[in-house]
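Case 72 in the screening queue. Each case pairs one protein sequence with one candidate compound; here the compound is iron/sulfur cluster. For every case the pipeline is the same: read the inputs, emit a complex structure as tokens, and attach any notable structural observations.

Predict complex for case 72.
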Amino acid sequence: MQTCEFFRRCEFYNKFSQKNSVAWRGLFDTYCHGRLVGHCERFKLYSAETRSISDEMMPNGQDLPPAFKLLQ
Ligand code: SF4
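Case 72 output:
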């Protein structure tokens, strides 16, 4: 399993990667450890050396919905 090259500096990954609900695991397995890594909006910003990225911006570029955040 490959992991996104930016996982150490990605605040989103470091803040939420311990989540283990199906929804969260699906997100990390698809983007951070999966084939859509290059489509992650955070990945694109890190690649462009953008420094200020909200730690609650999801890989799809949207703000993390409160209901999603509550999932384990
Ligand atoms: S959220 Fe995006 S930038 Fe962060 S580790 Fe996952 S794929 Fe990489």
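Case 72 observations:
- The chain has four helices and no strands.
- The CA atoms of residues 29 and 55 lie 19 Å apart.
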